[in-house]
Design goal:
Blueprint lengths: L1 E10 L2 E11 L4 E5 L6 H9 L6 E6 L4 E4 L11 H5 L1 H5 L4 H14 L16 H13 L5 E5 L7 H14 L6 E6 L2 H7 L2 E5 L6 E6 L11 H10 L2 H7 L7 H7 L14
Parallel strand pairs: 3-7, 3-8, 5-6, 6-7
Antiparallel strand pairs: 1-2, 1-4, 8-9
């Protein structure tokens, strides 16, 4: 289990995070949802051990953690296959075995034969990001930290990868902590949605969620997102309109909303 206990962080004297409490359990995909700039990435970096907190502690009981950044961060001189295999190389896996493992994941991510030998400069931004995702999945992590990994992808591919994420990580009994500011993406993939306030970020809601990544009705995610945005704490945190239009109210009035756990101290 990953436990974030009372985390506070500031940069240059400006508070970014204030008393964050959060736990991520095996088999669980937890989404951190909040406005751009509220401190979501900083929280993920604390969880990864990349920066230290001003107060609080991080306890990571998982044995193998991987991270997917907002930017692909690929080696410009290596092809897609070798970039995806890079973390396995760092672990000492033999060349043939690591390239085969990387290739298998890249194919699941939609790469054709001719794409595997391309260097990053010859790949689109979305393809570069898929290589970065493959690099993380190749490790077979039991915890994966993901910072808006699908933002550079088109809608169809993004939905495919959201479903693949659940199959590759949660379906294998691992866990994921996933950062986004996209409400629809959150309701599609999450087992729980943790909503952060604007800076200094605090947890204002912790929502159990039925993931919709496999839903047959494409409108289901939009309806669930609309229902989520109607809760006052979420509305204030995300800056949703305070007075939705009559059609919006009619579309969401009958939708159920998951129980909201109040933030500590509220």
């Amino acid at each position: 289990m990953l436990v974030l206990d009372g985390l506070s962080l500031s940069f240059g004297g400006a508070p970014v995070l204030a008393g964050i409490d959060l736990a991520v359990r095996p088999g669980e995909l937890v989404v951190i949802l909040g406005r751009s700039g509220c401190g979501k990435t900083s929280l993920l970096r604390l969880a990864a051990g990349m920066v230290g907190a001003d107060a609080g502690r991080v306890a990571n009981g998982f044995s193998r953690t991987a991270m997917v950044f907002q930017e692909p961060r690929l080696l410009p001189w290596a092809d897609a296959r070798d970039n995806a295999a890079f973390a396995l190389k760092a672990q000492g896996v033999r060349r043939g075995a690591r390239r085969a493992a990387a290739e298998a994941i890249l194919r699941r991510l939609g790469f054709a034969d001719g794409d595997l030998s391309k260097r990053p400069a010859a790949l689109s931004g979305g393809m570069q990001q898929r290589v970065a995702i493959a690099r993380a999945f190749a490790l077979k992590p039991d915890l994966v930290l993901m910072d808006e990994p699908f933002s550079a992808l088109d809608v169809g591919l993004r939905h495919d990868l959201q479903s693949l994420l659940r199959a590759e990580v949660v379906g294998a009994g691992a866990a994921a902590l996933f950062v986004t500011h996209d409400v629809t993406e959150a309701v599609r993939i999450a087992d729980r949605i943790v909503v952060l306030s604007p800076r200094p970020a605090r947890v204002v809601a912790d929502l159990p969620q039925v993931p919709l990544a496999g839903a047959s009705d494409p409108a289901a995610a939009y309806e669930a997102a609309a229902a989520l945005l109607r809760h006052p704490e979420v509305e204030r945190a995300l800056g949703a309109p305070s007075a939705p239009s009559a059609p919006a109210r009619q579309a969401t009035e009958a939708l159920p909303l998951a129980r909201v756990a109040p933030a500590p101290g509220r």
